[in-house]
Amino acid sequence: MLNIDEIQNGIVIDHIKAGTAIGLMDLLGIAGNRTASVALIQNARSKKTASGRKDIIKVEGDASWLNLDVLAYLDPNISVTIIENGKAVRKEQPKPPKRLVNIVRCKNPRCISSIEEECDQIFELSSNGKYRCVYCEQELQVKPE
Q: Do the Cβ atoms of 71 and 13 come closer than 8 Å?
């Protein structure tokens, strides 16, 4: 059995779809951060997931720099547990953000965000629960894997 120490202060991102945590770490900027201690657990057993497997990310230290809003867009089943003084003080289910900035790219080849390199990729949550490009109204079709 694999044993990973508990963290004293930080966060635990749990119930990540098995095999996707490395991409999620890149997207959140965890992989490039040199100040945080990070534990990545892949293919852990899970009774809650259909596949029976999940990934877990533990971040020790100040995690206030993480943009956790994007987690609900990527996977609505992800949960975040806040750890303080070795105790879980709060468990959250992230809500879909109203706006995604530079998370996904617009697929419309005529969109200004596809043509101009310095233009941010911005999508807003519409009333029908789907994200649309703020420049060309292109709707996002599927969530990334």
A: yes
